[in-house]
Amino acid sequence: MATQMKLIYCCGALVLLILVPSCCKGGHILVLPIEGSHWINMDILIQALHSRGHSLTVMRPSNSWYIKDNFQLQHIHSSSEEELLSELPLCFAWDVQALNNTKFDLVLTDPCWGSGALLAKHLSIPLVFNVRWIISEEGQFGITPSPLSYIPITGSGYTDKMTFFQRVKNNILYYIIRMNDMLVTKQVYQPLCEQYLGSDCDFDHLKIDAGIWLMRTDFVFDYPRPTVPNAMYMGGFHCKPAEPLSDYMEEFVQSSAEHRVIIMSLGTFVPELPDNLANEIAAAFAKLPQNVIWSYRGPKPSTLGNNTLLVDWRPQKDLLGDPKTKLFVTHGGTNGIQEAIYYGAPVVGLPLFFDQYDNLLHLQVKGGAKILTLSTVDKDDNFLKAIQEVLNKPSYRQNIQRLSRLHRDQPMKLIDTAVFWIEYVMRHKGAGLLKAQCYRMPWYVYHSVVVVLFLTGAVMLMLLATAMFIRCLWKSVCGCKVKLEVHRDHTH
Ligand SMILES: *[C@@H]1O[C@H](CO)[C@@H](O)[C@H](O)[C@H]1NC(C)=O
Ligand SMILES: *[C@@H]1O[C@H](CO)[C@@H](O)[C@H](O)[C@H]1NC(C)=O
């Protein structure tokens, strides 16, 4: 009965929280974000928290090129990440004093770098991760059980179905990451850990010691795998229903008539391509009946057709969400892939670096994308053929639309889920009972190596004792009593 009452109370509280934000006491949240495309996600989360009455303080590099003072946030200008690391003593000496006086309820950080976790521990503030990468590996590897037999290392180019030799390589890649962690990452952060948190602080444990992990992935995009109670999946939480296009863009889209539109973008880091490649791509586009909107900041390719519009700014999500969009040509960044899933736009992938190939592979395996390698794009009309295949084979569209329906079939909007868990941590001053204890274990304890060795030893001892006992018994039965006694005399 008491449990039932509690349950009803919790449900009531949940509904109130969502519907009547003005009734909630605002918390003080300290945010340590990461630059570039990572900021896109953090910014959306910050805005959602701000609109619910929380006050936010963003710690950002003074020379940051992406993180803007965009609304009533208090921005603390710190130096860039590298500088921040080298200047942490200074920062901790006086900046942190001020931070400590503010009495923050929560530190929200992207653990792609380790300073957020360090600061949260130093100030003894509950910590929430908005995570895709944890320093050198995909975020889930940081905390969830990750059997290498069916969970491919990002960068391996494998799926969840691996052959024997692929599994061998998957294991080797895993050990390389572990070595890199030990020889590079830990060397940078461990001295700071010891300086500020005492000599018994181990950065390997600290870097994963967060209350809640808001994972920017989900199982429509990712392969199914084990997880832990404090990992919350919110991949694609940044996607919103498309807004109307600008008049100019709308006119261009409409002029495509029944042929519809192709969108191409290679992300924030690659504004332009080598001339020959750009010309090849432009020539391929020119041969298509569809209109093309290409986010490109390089010089205009000489082969550009009159069906292709070059833009240096892209209302990407609104274009992808437009029902006239037939195809998305992308480099395969996580945000773009999740937008493709959300809006149900089939993909031709041109992966460039990082996790992009693996991201695209997820979609290709599920039938919603076709991957081209950059080295073969300009050969044998490969680019044109790939585009025509994805445009003309209905399965690509059907598969990605199915993924889109699965992705959208959720009990709560993902951004609300994310906000709920952040507020949950503030209400309970941590993640309560959700945290599995694995974060504080060295690998040999986690994998029970010592226990297995101990048990193996015990079994061997028992076997040995039994064998010796049988041997003695055998000998006494055989009437070799004399010999046995001689032997006993020897051992005494
Ligand atoms: C933060 O302030 C509390 C007192 O409010 C103090 O006990 C603690 O040592 C301070 N921590 C740091 C890192 O300055
Ligand atoms: C675009 O170019 C094609 C030939 O390449 C031509 O037939 C067509 O009329 C042109 N369209 C416009 C709107 O200029």
From TrEMBL:
Residues 1-26 form the signal peptide. One of its GO terms (cellular component) is membrane. One of its GO terms (molecular function) is glucuronosyltransferase activity. Its main location: membrane. It is found in: Membrane. Its EC number is 2.4.1.17. It is an enzyme of class 2 (transferase). It catalyses: glucuronate acceptor + UDP-alpha-D-glucuronate = acceptor beta-D-glucuronoside + UDP + H(+). PROSITE patterns: UDPGT (PS00375). Keywords: Glycosyltransferase, Membrane, Signal, Transferase, Transmembrane, Transmembrane helix. Pfam families: UDPGT. It is a single-pass membrane protein. The chain crosses the membrane at residues 443-465. Belongs to the UDP-glycosyltransferase family. This is UDP-glucuronosyltransferase.
